[in-house]
């Protein structure tokens, strides 16, 4: 179960695009989220957790579900923060897709734009995503996250 510490509204856009090298020969789903409220704390310490709530929207700006992101700080140093994060993407009528992995931040503010590119594991889900596996490339972009993944199984 994903715990939430704060409430944040996010907009995500999903489209299918040509496959990048990491997903050669596959259709790629790309989503982007735009955070419009709080979420991550400034100046994190080891053991601290934070959560984010998101609204998922399609390319036509129709709501298609919601999402939660929970992170726990594993290491915090002056120049780097390492956090283990779970992304739960709930798509109405389809199920929940779970992504999990490590976020590396360049400083303790963990503010937008301070995370390195990530490759998160697809660890399963429910409904249409019950047997999902693979990876998702995730970038923290100004205002949210950009997700890219190929076939999930």
Overview of the molecule:
The protein is mainly beta and 153 residues long. 0% of the residues lie in helices and 54% in strands. The protein is built from no helices and 9 strands. It has strands at 10-17, 28-35, 49-57, 63-76, 81-91, 95-105, 118-125, 134-141, 144-149. Strands 1-2-9-8-7-6-5-4-3 form a 9-stranded antiparallel sheet, with no helix packed on it. A hairpin with a 5-residue loop joins strand 3 and strand 4. The two termini are 23 Å apart. The model is unreliable at 1-20 (pLDDT under 50).
Radius of gyration: 15 Å
Strand residue content: over 45%
Q: What's the SSE pattern?
A: EEEEEEEEE
Uncertain runs with pLDDT below 50, 5 residues or more?
1-20
Protein structure class: mainly beta
Number of beta strands: 9
Main sheet characteristics:
9 strands, antiparallel
* Shape designation: globular
In spatial order, strands of the major sheet run 1-2-9-8-7-6-5-4-3
How many H/I helical runs? 0
Residue-averaged pLDDT, rounded?
75
Assembly level = single chain
Helix amount, in percent? under 10%
Cα end-to-end separation: 23 Å
